[in-house]
Every structure is written in structure tokens, then in C-alpha cells.
Amino acid sequence: MTLIAEVLMLIAGLIAMLAGLGLLRFETAYARFHAAGKASPVAFLIAALGASTQVGWVGTAYLAIAAMAMILTLPVGVHLMFRAVHRTTPGDHLAIDDLSPAEQEAESAAAAMAAKAARESK
Amino acid sequence: MITTFAIGCFTVAGLLGSYRLLAGPGLADRIVALDVTLISLMGAITVDAAASGDTTNLIMLVVLAIIGFTATVSASRFLEHENPTSLAAIKAASTHSSSSKASRRESKS
Q1: Domain of residue B42, residue span
Q2: Does A35 map to a domain?
Q3: How far apart are alpha carbons B43 and A5 in whole angstroms?
Q4: Taking the alpha carbons of A35, B66, B31, B82 in that order, is the dihedral positive or negative?
Q5: Which of B16, B38, B48, B73 has the largest CB neighbor count within 10 A?
Q6: Prediction pTM value
């Protein structure tokens, strides 16, 4: 293995360990998601970058497909988990909550549109 | 040597994720911990493939990435449908024109 691949893989392993430590140590669910959802894809991307110097063109293509799938899908999944936690936790659990007023606004707008459609259909 | 150390780092990350998977206070924590464990497995497969120069296992990475995404999304939908506390409160607040936080406290009790 070349030196650059080894260094990149070492960095990737350390970043993955940081993600695990954040998952272990942080207090709230939001902070844990923050650590897990940002550090772990970066770790995989760096490891893939290091490995792509070793495995030839076919292996690099596989790694590129996997990295692309991860970049496109993982933020969406973690965002959905954030939203699920926000919706299923009752009460005021946040110091600043910007999502609840926005959802309330969207709900009232949808209700107004439904009422308007019902009036027009009569 | 460095390859072994890198795989050890990924293993430690996977073990920390497994701890959160077993001990996590909520279902969402467990799902995200499962994601981290899966990504640690993917990183270890990548390092192993680079060390041996063998591309046989690399197709597994694509499958694992897509499986992780599907698991996360379906679990989050399940969570929202299983326990839609604040959504119901928001709907009630928008129809009765009261504040959403007060009705959320009512729906909690």
C-alpha cells in the first residue's frame, strides 16, 4: 500500500471512532444524531478515497457508486429521524423551536385551502 | 500494520454504536446507532479490500448503503405513525385557534 492510502485510512478510522464516541457520550438525541449523521459518512468517504488508489478502476467504480448512494441518502434519513423525534416528543423540550410554528402555519394553510375548495365545489 | 489499526478503529466505532443500539433510550437512537454500526462495517470492508487488492467484496458496500437508507426511512415513518403526539396537537391547535404548546401539554397528560 502506498503511504497516502495508509494515511487516509488512518484518518478515516479515527473519524469513525469520533462518531462512535459522540454517539456514546452526548446527552440529547439531537446531539447524538448530529455526531452520527455527519462524522460517519465523512469517515467512509475518506476510506473510499484511500482505497480507490489500491483497487483499480473496477473497484473505484464500486466505491464511487457506494459513496454516491451514501451522500445522497444519509442526510435524508438522518433528517427524517430528527423530524420523527421532534414530532413524537411531547411538550417544550427545546430552547428554540422553529419547526412547530412552521408546521402550524402549513397546517392552517392546508386547512384554508381545503375549506376554499369545499366552498368552490358547492 | 496501519491497516490493522484502521480496521481496529472501525471496530471500536461499531462497538460503540452497538452499545447505543442496546442501551439507547429511544427507538430513534437505536436506528441511528444501527446506521453508525453499518457504516463502520462498510469502512472496514473498504480497508480490507484495499489491503488485499481484491474487489470481490466491494459490491456489498452499495447494497449496505441502500439497506441502511431504507431502514432509516421506514423506521422514521413508523415512529411518526406510531406516536403522532405533536402532529395531532398541531391539528387541534389550528382548528380551535389556541396555541399549539398548550394543546400539546394537554395531549401529554
Answers
A1: 2-108
A2: yes
A3: 13
A4: positive
A5: B16
A6: 0.79
Summarize pLDDT for B41-77 with one digit per residue, the tens. Answer: 999 999 999 998 888 889 999 999 999 899 999 988 8
The Cα B107–Cα B109 span in angstroms is: 6
Domain count, chain A: 1
Per the CB < 8 A criterion, the answer to whether A19 and B15 are in contact is: no
Number of independent structural domains in chain B:
1
Residue A91 pLDDT exceeds 90: no
Contact B36 A23 (CB under 8 A): yes
The parent domain of residue A26 ranges over 3-94
The whole-chain average pLDDT of chain A stands at 88
CA A63 to chain centre: 20
pLDDT in tens, B69-102: 999 999 888 888 776 665 555 555 555 544 444 4
For residue B83, the chain A residues in CB contact (below 8 A) are: 88
Nearest to A43 among B31, B43, B59 (CB): B43
CATH of residue B30's domain is 1.10.287
Q: What is the ipTM of this complex?
A: 0.82
Between CA A105 and CA B6 the distance in angstroms is 49
- Residues from chain B contacting residue A62 (CB–CB below 8 Å): 55, 58-59, 61-62
